Amino acid sequence: MSPLVSSKNIAGKTFKQKGDIFKAKNSYKEAISSYLNALLSDRNNAEIYFSLGVCYKNQGKLDKAIENLEKAVLLENENYEYFYELGLCHLKEEVPCKAIKCFIQAIQLEPENPEIIYHLGLAHEQCGEPDMAMMIYQKLIENSPSYLGAYLRKSYLLSKMGLYSQALNLYLNALKINPKYTKVYSEIGMCFDKLGKANEAKRYYRKFLSAEPDDEKATKIMHRIENLRKLTPRKEKTNSVNLSIV
Predict the structure, then answer these.
(1) Which residue, 16, 153, 191, 219, is most buried by CB atoms nearer than 10 A?
(2) What is d(CA 59, CA 68) in angstroms, rounded to the nearest whole number?
(3) What percentage of residues in the chain have a pLDDT greater than 70?
(4) Does domain 80-151 have CATH number 1.10.150.130?
(5) Which CATH number fits domain 9-76: 3.40.50.150, 1.25.40.10, 3.30.70.270, 1.10.10.10?
(6) Residue 236: is its pLDDT beyond 90?
(7) Phi/psi at 55 (5° precision)
(8) DSSP-H helix ranges across 25-45
(9) Which fold has domain 162-246?
């Protein structure tokens, strides 16, 4: 190896290391500058293209992010993170079919990663395939029972379908998994509201307002509580709500 080539390699590694430090500090502009300098010394380094792609993604420059992540994948197709980050970019661009392909490739390399499986579900939602998304979330609940996002997304889809009793079960399970996730109080209250359980609805709405007073939904929920108060007292629906644990 000639002294010139050796010097270039050393310079490339130095710029990459600087880029990694900046990226860790979320200083993406500086990180990008360092990675571009590193590429001058090494045009075939998949890690540099990957890191560039992640930095561009975090800056919201999705075209450049995808361009660099695709180069990383071409150079090294055995790293699940490359496909996963590329899928996230396509998801942000609202191109779910491409995102699905990337997530599937990532899952083939890293089959037990719940985060990838969850985003595959989101991509199917974006693709207009809620049934497929719900199936993915259910599998995720079964295989990774502590993964909160699967409960929340499946509950959301069930609510959209008017299946409030089933959604309520899952929201309550989500709260058992993470009692500190107080934002779910509003969704629990909404399910009780839709099921005609006014007292339970008001209780959870109040719990939400107490925990999340500055949330953007707070004013709307305050109005809903007031409306429930003004309603002529009537016997709540007697339909039992199955609150079994999934």
Answers:
(1) 191
(2) 14
(3) 89
(4) no
(5) 1.25.40.10
(6) no
(7) -65, -45
(8) 28-41
(9) 1.25.40
